[in-house]
C-alpha cells in the first residue's frame, strides 16, 4: 500500500520489511538508523515490539504524548537526528469515526463501548477521548486489564468523562451491555469475533449484537483479514442489520496509512478510496 502510493506519486521513497533479527533484536540499533542514513524517514513497529519500543522511547524522552497515553509505539519518525515514537493506531480509529459522521452530517456520539482490553483497545480509549466522548465503557473477559487502562487514563481526562468496565463473560445474559449502549452509541471492537481457531478473547457471542442492535449506530472493527473484505463480525452485522454503519478493519487501516504519509511529509494526493478498492480486489 505504501509502495503503491509512492510509485503513483513519483516519490523517491521505499517501504520495505525488516525483521528485528537483522538487528540482533537491538532497539538501539534501529533507533540509530537515522544517524547512519540521513535518508531514513522512519518505520512502523509491529507486535510484539510495540511495548518494547515504547519503553525505550519513554526512557529517552522521545515519546509523543498520545503514544504515552496509549502505552505503545507503533511508528517512529525521524526528526533531525532523533527518532520520535508515535502511535498511529489512535488516528486509525479517530479518522474513520470523524469521516463516518461527517458524511452523515451528524455529531459524533458521546457514548462508546469498546469490546476487549488488549492490543489496540488502549488506543481506542485515547481516540474516544480525542473525540470528546463523555461515556466510555470497556467490556472485557475480565475487568482487571480494563481497570488498569481506566486508572492510567484518569490522569488525562476531565471530571465529566464517565468510565466503566464490565465483564463480558456473562453473555448468558447479553442484555447486560444494553444499559451501556445508550442510543446513539458506537461500538469499537478489538476482538477476533468468529475467527477459528477460537481465541479466549473471541468468546463473546454475536448474541450481544442481537441484544443491543437498536442502540448501536455504528461499529468500527479493529480486526482485519488481508484475505477477506469482511471479518465474521462485520459480515454478520452487514447482513443482519444493514441500518448499522460498519467500518471494516481494511477501510480503517487505509486511513492509518494516509496518516503515516502525512507524518513523514510525503502526502500529496493519497487516494483512500482507491486503496480501499485495491484491498477489495486483493481479497476477492
Say what the CATH topology of the largest domain is.
Rossmann fold
Reported for the largest beta sheet, the result is: 6 strands, parallel
* CATH homologous superfamily descriptor of the largest domain: NAD(P)-binding Rossmann-like Domain
User: What radius of gyration results from the CA coordinates?
Assistant: 19 Å
How would you describe the shape? globular
* Unreliable stretches covering 5 or more consecutive residues: 197-203, 266-270
Distance between the termini: 17 Å
Would you tell me the structural class of the helices and strands? alpha/beta
Q: How much is the average pLDDT? A: 78
How would you explain this protein's 3D organization?
- This protein is α/β, with parallel strands linked by helices and 284 residues long.
- It folds into 2 domains: 2-87, 3-Layer(aba) Sandwich (Rossmann fold), CATH 3.40.50; 90-251, NAD(P)-binding Rossmann-like Domain (Rossmann fold, 3-Layer(aba) Sandwich), CATH 3.40.50.720.
- 39% of the residues lie in helices and 15% in strands.
- The protein contains 12 helices and 9 strands.
- It has helices at 2-8, 27-31, 33-36, 50-59, 65-70, 89-103, 121-130, 143-153, 207-212, 232-240, 249-263, 272-283; strands at residues 42-44, 75-79, 82-86, 111-115, 135-140, 162-167, 185-189, 216-221, 245-247.
- A 6-stranded parallel sheet has the order 6-5-4-7-8-9, sandwiched between helices.
- Helix 6 (89-103) packs across helix 7, helix 6 (89-103) packs across helix 11 (249-263) and helix 11 (249-263) packs across helix 12.
- The protein is globular.
- The two termini are 17 Å apart.
- Residues 197-203 and 266-270 have low confidence and may be disordered.
Amino acid at each position: 500500500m505504501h509502495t503503491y502510493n509512492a510509485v503513483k506519486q513519483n516519490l523517491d521513497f521505499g517501504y520495505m520489511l525488516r525483521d528485528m533479527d537483522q538487528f540482533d533484536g537491538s532497539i538501539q540499533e534501529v533507533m540509530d538508523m537515522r544517524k547512519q542514513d540521513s535518508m531514513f524517514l522512519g518505520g512502523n513497529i509491529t507486535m510484539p515490539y510495540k511495548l518494547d519500543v515504547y519503553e525505550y522511547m519513554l526512557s529517552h524522552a522521545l515519546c509523543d504524548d498520545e503514544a504515552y497515553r496509549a502505552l505503545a509505539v507503533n511508528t517512529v519518525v525521524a526528526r533531525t537526528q532523533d527518532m520520535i515514537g508515535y502511535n498511529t493506531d489512535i488516528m486509525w480509529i479517530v479518522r474513520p469515526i470523524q469521516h463516518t459522521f461527517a458524511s452523515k452530517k451528524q455529531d459524533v456520539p458521546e457514548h462508546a463501548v469498546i469490546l476487549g482490553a488488549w492490543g489496540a483497545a488502549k488506543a481506542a480509549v485515547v481516540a474516544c477521548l480525542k473525540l470528546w466522548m463523555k461515556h466510555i465503557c470497556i467490556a472485557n473477559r475480565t475487568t482487571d486489564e480494563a481497570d488498569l487502562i481506566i486508572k492510567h487514563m484518569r490522569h488525562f481526562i476531565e471530571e465529566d468523562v464517565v468510565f466503566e468496565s464490565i465483564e463480558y463473560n456473562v453473555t448468558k445474559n447479553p442484555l447486560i451491555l444494553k444499559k451501556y449502549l445508550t442510543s446513539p452509541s458506537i461500538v469499537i471492537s478489538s476482538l477476533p469475533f468468529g475467527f477459528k481457531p477460537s481465541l479466549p478473547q473471541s468468546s463473546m457471542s454475536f448474541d450481544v449484537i442481537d441484544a443491543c442492535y437498536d442502540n448501536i449506530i455504528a461499529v468500527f472493527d479493529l480486526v482485519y483479514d488481508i484475505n477477506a473484505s469482511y471479518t465474521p463480525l462485520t459480515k454478520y452485522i452487514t447482513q443482519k442489520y444493514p441500518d448499522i454503519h460498519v467500518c471494516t478493519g481494511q477501510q480503517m487501516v487505509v486511513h492509518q496509512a494516509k496518516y503515516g504519509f502525512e507524518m513523514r511529509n510525503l502526502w500529496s494526493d493519497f487516494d483512500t478510496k482507491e486503496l480501499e478498492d485495491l484491498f477489495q480486489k486483493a481479497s476477492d
